[in-house]
Amino acid sequence: MVLAAFFFATMAVGIKIASSSFGLFELVFYRGLVSVVFMAVVLRARGTPFATPVPMMHAWRTVVGVFSLITWFYAISHLPLATAMTLNYMSGVWVATFVVGGAMLYGKSTGQGPLMATVLAGFAGVVMMLRPTLDQNQLFAGLVGLLSGLGASMAYLQVTALGKIGEPEGRTVFYFSIGTTLIGLAGIGYSGFTPWSAVSWQAAAWLIPIGVLASLGQWCMTRAFSRGATLLVANLQYAGIVFAAFYSLLLFGDKIDTLAWAGMVVIVGSGVAATILRTRILPDTPAEDH
Fold first, then answer.
1. pLDDT, tens digit (0-9, with 9 covering 90-100), for 38-53
2. Residues with Cβ < 8 Å from 241, sequence gap 6 or more?
3. Does the model's pTM come out above 0.70?
């Protein structure tokens, strides 16, 4: 999951640069198209069949994943970036709530209270770094942003379900990429393509890396949720905020104040604590606590 967070943060750098020339749906389309081609090559090289015995599970994963993506982009467009990011990163809290709440509903004792505490601590670190704000006239956009985190958590849990039945991670990413491409193409049908004469070479140069980084990030994330401890993985996704902060510092000249540095320490510390707790609670059952 930490590697996935690194790939997604690096991809975000490319999106920030490419967005100067391309529209939202164009970026979604190109990201998905490159990912489809990349994952098709990977599946063919690994000898993994393209056909799946569970098409409806992939369909649901694609629906909730694309829903999360669209609502997040809407939130980014209508809210301060820090607020939109924070609401989307509530996905980790939603995952913890579903896992622990579901176990309690069925009368099971998971012993994962301390792990859930680390997820909440990690989210507190995110809030310390981003410090979200919300005006009264932004309540609807705030609700949409909240739904983006909820949709992401449902996508993560669906990925977990696909992994538990033995579905290859590469095929899961491949079908999600197809869905992303189709949604992006549908959006372009409404907004139109940007003429290549108006595209900077820096933006064009990022199109393929964005798709490849998205594929690698999705692959690592899918593998993490498929084979790892759900609450631990949900916590470690917060590493993406730390990577993004360092990119902002090194590439874009943004400043990181004392509270933000403290938030980074909280995020990293909660991830380390979650890893240690996971090892102590369930040392030999890598995917049984979902």
1. 999 999 999 999 999 9
2. 85, 89, 125, 126, 129, 130, 267
3. yes
CA distance 131 to 260: 9
Q: What are the residue ranges spanned by the domains of the chain? A: 2-281
Query: How far apart are alpha carbons 140 and 149 in whole angstroms?
Result: 15
Q: Are 173 and 222 in contact (CB under 8 A)?
A: yes
For 82-93, the pLDDT digits (tens) are 677 778 888 888
Q: Are 287 and 145 in contact (CB under 8 A)?
A: no
Q: For residue 145, what pLDDT band results from cuts at 50, 70 and 90?
A: confident
Give the per-residue SS3 of the chain.
CHHHHHHHHHHHHHHHHHCCCCCHHHHHHHHHHHHHHHHHHHHHHHCCCCCCCCHHHHHHHHHHHHHHHHHHHHHHHHCCHHHHHHHHCCHHHHHHHHHHHHHHHCCCCCCCHHHHHHHHHHHHHHHHHHCCCCCHHHHHHHHHHHHHHHHHHHHHHHHHHHHHCCCCHHHHHHHHHHHHHHHHHHHHHHHCCCCHHHCCHHHHHCHHHHHHHHHHHHHHHHHHHHHCCHHHHHHHCCHHHHHHHHHHHHHCCCCCCHHHHHHHHHHHHHHHHHHHHHHHHCCCCCCCCC
Half-sphere exposure of 57 (CA within 13 A, CB side): 20
Which residue carries 């995952």 as its tokens?
95
- CA–CA separation, 216 vs 220, rounded Å? 6
Report pLDDT for 284: 39
Condensed to tens digits (0 to 9), the pLDDT of residues 13-32 reads 888 888 889 988 898 899 99
Query: Distance between CA atoms of 243 and 5, rounded to whole angstroms?
Result: 8
Amino acid identity, position 62: T
